[in-house]
């Protein structure tokens, strides 16, 4: 089938020496599990191998004083020792895990963080990592999120067509998502690659859906 051919291309379509990754995010307002069940069936049918579970988390540290900017801190279970930090009007910066402990010590400047997390199963489909899971705000379910991550990737443009085709294969016939796949962020950026860009996609999606 077309989808099988697309997944086969995902193994060899990009030079092996490249190490960056390109990401896409898709969100559904589905709390009954229909979308998650459909995604798992499609991934399995395409030969995807389950590799474990995953979690992504976005914490928002609100300023306790008008002169202090709030911060978004994003973490991924696949990069346990890295935190991606974004303050208002600044770039995303990679820092080490103890950064959050420092923020918690600065209670005079930052309130206790609000957080949104996504957790669920992850699969490998050639060079494409496919993850989906429940979006949780506290104990409240807010929908389903699908993350595609293609590595290796030379540039966003070189991966765009392949990722678009895989999105179509995995989501065709499912409930309509909340908008098209997220490949650009709301900071005025263009399609890009890398871990910092993925953090910006998460922040943008959660802000657009008023989750943070």
Broad shape: globular
Average of pLDDT? 80
Largest sheet properties: 8 strands, antiparallel
Could you give the distance between the termini?
40 Å
Topology diagram in text:
Blueprint (H helix, E strand, L loop, with lengths): L1 H8 L10 E9 L5 H12 L3 E13 L9 E6 L2 E9 L5 E4 L2 H7 L8 E12 L2 E10 L2 E14 L2 H16 L23 H14 L4
Antiparallel strand pairs: 1-8, 2-3, 2-6, 3-4, 4-5, 6-7, 7-8
Overall description:
By secondary structure, the protein is α+β, with helices and mostly antiparallel strands. It is built from five helices and eight strands; from the N terminus they run H-E-H-E-E-E-E-H-E-E-E-H-H. It has helices at 2-9, 34-45, 99-105, 156-171, 195-208; strands spanning 20-28, 49-61, 71-76, 79-87, 93-96, 114-125, 128-137, 140-153. The longest helix is centred in the C-terminal third of the chain and has 16 residues, at 156-171. The radius of gyration is 17 Å and the shape is globular. The N and C termini lie far apart (40 Å).
Name a few traits of the molecule:
212 residues, alpha+beta, 27% helix, 5 helices, eight-stranded antiparallel beta sheet
In short:
The protein is α+β, with helices and mostly antiparallel strands. The chain has helices at residues 2-9, 34-45, 99-105, 156-171, 195-208, and strands at residues 20-28, 49-61, 71-76, 79-87, 93-96, 114-125, 128-137, 140-153. It has 5 helices and 8 strands; from the N terminus they run αβαββββαβββαα.
């Amino acid at each position: 089938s077309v989808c099988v051919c697309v997944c086969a291309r995902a193994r060899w379509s990009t030079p092996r020496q490249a190490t960056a990754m390109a990401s896409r995010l898709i969100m559904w307002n589905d709390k009954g599990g229909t979308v998650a069940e459909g995604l798992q069936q499609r991934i399995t049918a395409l030969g995807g191998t389950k590799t474990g579970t995953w979690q992504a988390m976005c914490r928002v540290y609100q300023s306790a004083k008008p002169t202090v900017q709030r911060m978004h801190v994003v973490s991924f279970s696949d990069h346990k020792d890295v935190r991606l930090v974004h303050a208002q009007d600044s770039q995303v910066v990679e820092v080490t895990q103890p950064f959050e402990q420092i923020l918690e010590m600065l209670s005079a400047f930052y309130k206790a963080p609000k957080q949104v997390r996504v957790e669920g199963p992850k699969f490998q489909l050639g060079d494409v990592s496919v993850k989906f899971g429940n979006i949780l705000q506290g104990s409240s379910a807010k929908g389903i999120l699908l993350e595609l991550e293609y590595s290796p990737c030379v540039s966003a443009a070189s991966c765009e067509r392949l990722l678009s085709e895989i999105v179509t294969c995995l989501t065709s016939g499912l409930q309509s998502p909340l908008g098209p796949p997220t490949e650009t962020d709301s900071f005025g950026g263009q399609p890009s690659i890398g871990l910092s860009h993925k953090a910006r996609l998460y922040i943008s999606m959660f802000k657009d859906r008023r989750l943070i």
